């Protein structure tokens, strides 16, 4: 009989761990790391060997692609579909990513700046002076409108309403706690109400997207949005995405992209309201531009860049980046067997005083004094599956913040200790109420 492999140390309890993980992954990972060292083994959704050390993270992110495979659980397939990037692995993933990636980077991204700017300006114009809003809701509305314009290409006012309703219903269905709990428990029946609500919502959204695609195929209208770019993209053999792949990739990006950016913006309000000295320095830098529609100038502001990174560092929306092993992997002296998961733990790495002195403090200056390496700062994951929207997300957050701070004044009403809450699959700040006054 072959001996069981020696895994990194970790607690032995079976039931307490998933519960503690679901309640607060930050507290859970930090406590276990402090007790057992690095790497460590935990039982979250599955048995997982984790590291928060840059060397271990390098080993995970630079391993050959065939070290890992993707097995989307049925609940995730229900949300993302069968033909989107997240469900692919190996060569199929590499090929598809190569085809999609240019639409989210470089020239294509620069072309989207005007749409994001217009979305932020229109949202702000609708707010009443003195109104109080929950930052998460307001930022989510902006995030959804950004998606509708940049990804789906919906600009026509008359068509916005049904699209917005379909996206909101779909986002509500996959973020519904009842759906998340049933997904964790493996309840997959089509007739189960949370599953049925999700299927119906996805079906309606997909129908609108297919209609939009068919119209473009018929009229051949070329536009600056991402859907147009995806429709024009070609593999080396001259073929492109069929409708099913277009729809699933648009929906994948909607799921992966709308709430993550909105949570980063919400964190910005939570932190700036508690740190007036940072808010003043940022305001001076943004005001120095004199206008808020010079997209290239906004992107080049060093302090704005540092503020956005510090918001991404403290409580990363995805506290651990997981890979499923198809082959054994050497992780800091341990051989982790195929079938297990490995994970890079940003929740612990981003709090390591060796890289981030006084890690609990919100201090954007740290990114100007000592920019971290790619294995010391991982809010977007890394390696072959690094977030497809890493540039898009930061680009969007910077434009929206620049517009809001140029045109508005914001007073944070909830100034107590920072509290973090689960937001579906993600983590984000709890209760960030803000009072708005126009500046000009
Ligand atoms: C601040 C905003 C965002 C954060 C913090 C974030 C974070 C992440 C993380 C941690 C991953 C997993 C990466 C890995 O496994 O190594 C990921 C994957 C992904 N993200 Fe993002 N994301 C953000 C914005 C976006 C946006 C705006 C989009 C698209 C519009 C997007 C699309 C995706 C996609 C498609 C994947 C899967 C990539 C693949 O499997 O190849 N994300 N994101």
UniProtKB/TrEMBL annotation:
Q: Which superkingdom heads the taxonomic lineage of this protein's source? A: Bacteria
Instruction: Tell me which InterPro entries the record gives.
Output: Cyt_P450 (IPR001128), Cyt_P450_CS (IPR017972), Cyt_P450_E_grp-I (IPR002401), Cyt_P450_sf (IPR036396), Cytochrome_P450_monoxygenase (IPR050121)
Q: Name one GO molecular function term.
A: iron ion binding
Provide the cofactor list for this protein: heme
Q: Which UniProt keywords apply?
A: Heme, Iron, Metal-binding, Monooxygenase, Oxidoreductase
Q: Which Pfam families match?
A: p450 (PF00067)
Q: Which residues bind heme?
A: 387
UniProt entry tagged with the keyword Metal-binding: yes
Family listed:
Belongs to the cytochrome P450 family.
Q: Which PANTHER family match?
A: CYTOCHROME P450 (PTHR24305), CYTOCHROME P450 12A4, MITOCHONDRIAL-RELATED (PTHR24305:SF166)
List the protein's name: Cytochrome P450
Give the species: Methylomagnum ishizawai
């Amino acid at each position: 009989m072959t001996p069981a492999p020696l895994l990194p140390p970790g607690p032995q309890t079976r039931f307490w761990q998933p519960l503690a993980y679901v309640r607060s992954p930050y507290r859970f990972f930090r406590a276990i790391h402090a007790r057992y060292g690095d790497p460590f083994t935990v039982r979250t959704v599955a048995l997982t060997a984790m590291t928060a050390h840059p060397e271990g993270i390098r080993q995970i992110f630079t391993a050959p692609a065939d070290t890992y495979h993707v097995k989307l659980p049925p609940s995730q397939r229900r949300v993302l579909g069968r033909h989107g990037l997240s469900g692919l692995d190996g060569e199929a993933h590499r090929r598809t990513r190569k085809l999609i990636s240019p639409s989210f980077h470089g020239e294509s991204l620069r072309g989207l700046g005007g749409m994001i700017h217009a979305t932020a300006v229109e949202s702000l114009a609708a707010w009443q002076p003195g109104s109080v809003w929950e930052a998460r809701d307001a930022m989510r509305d902006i995030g959804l409108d950004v998606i509708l314009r940049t990804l789906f290409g919906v600009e026509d006012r008359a068509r916005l309403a049904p699209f917005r309703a379909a996206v909101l219903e779909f986002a509500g269905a996959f973020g519904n706690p009842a759906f998340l709990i049933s997904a964790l428990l493996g309840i997959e029946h089509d007739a189960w109400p949370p599953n049925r609500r999700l299927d119906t919502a996805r079906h309606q959204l997909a129908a609108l997207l297919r209609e939009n695609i068919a119209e473009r195929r018929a009229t051949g209208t070329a536009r600056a949005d991402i859907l147009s770019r995806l429709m024009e993209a070609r593999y080396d053999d001259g073929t492109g995405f069929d409708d099913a792949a277009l729809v699933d990739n648009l929906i994948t990006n909607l799921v992966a992209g709308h709430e993550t950016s909105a949570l980063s913006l919400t964190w910005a309000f939570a932190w700036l309201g508690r740190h007036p000295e940072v808010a003043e320095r940022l305001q001076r830098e943004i005001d120095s531009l004199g206008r808020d529609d010079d997209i290239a100038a906004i992107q080049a502001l060093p302090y704005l860049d540092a503020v956005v990174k510090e918001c991404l560092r403290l409580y990363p929306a995805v506290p651990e980046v997981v890979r499923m092993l198809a082959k054994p992997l050497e992780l800091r002296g341990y051989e982790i067997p195929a079938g297990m998961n490995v994970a890079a733990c940003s929740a612990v790495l981003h709090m390591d005083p060796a890289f981030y002195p006084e890690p609990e403090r919100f201090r954007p200056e740290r990114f100007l004094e000592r920019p971290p390496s790619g294995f010391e700062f991982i809010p977007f994951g890394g390696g072959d599956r690094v977030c497809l929207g890493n540039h898009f997300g930061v680009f969007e957050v910077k434009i929206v913040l620049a517009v809001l701070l140029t045109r508005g004044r914001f007073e944070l009403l909830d100034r107590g200790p920072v509290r973090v809450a689960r937001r579906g699959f993600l983590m984000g700040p709890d209760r960030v109420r803000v009072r708005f006054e126009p500046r000009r």
